[in-house]
Design goal:
Order of helices and strands: HHHHH
Shape: elongated
Oligomer: single chain
Number of helices: 5
Strand content: under 5%
Structural class: mainly alpha
Helix content: over 70%
Amino acid sequence: CRDNASTNFRSYIDNQVQSIAAKISQGAPALTPAEIAFIDSAPLPVEKTLRWGAMTDNMEGAKTTLRDPLAVAYAYYAIDDLYRSVQYLMQHAQAAAQKPLSAGGDPNLCNPLVFATAITQVTAWSETIWQLRQESKNSYHAEIQRLADYQTLMKTIMENYRLAEQKSLRELER
């Protein structure tokens, strides 16, 4: 038995990026609502990066540049959400464990011993998830920097192309 969620996740990102890139490259009509939602929810500038790829005739580079950062970004957000959920669970378990047993109440209800075991387990989960969160955050920031470097390179290429084109036009006018 093998969990293929990561394969499906990568396929989803690839399919969305491929579809949007194809439409941008072909000057196709409007994007679908699903593609617009993907762009709007993406933590990175998907449309801008793909447009730079089209303008520089480097769409494959743009798509490749987006895939890993998007996967890392979504992984970070998923782990961050999990961490916050575990923290919320731990806070509520601790609060319940500190409530005094009311007179005539069921001794198994709000029993601090029951909550102590749960709090110990949740604390261990929290520490593990926090470490994953930190690693994921570092990867996310590295991927964002890589994407920013790519965009800077594309801007430089476009500027150099524009300057070369202007120079060629001036030479032709002579």
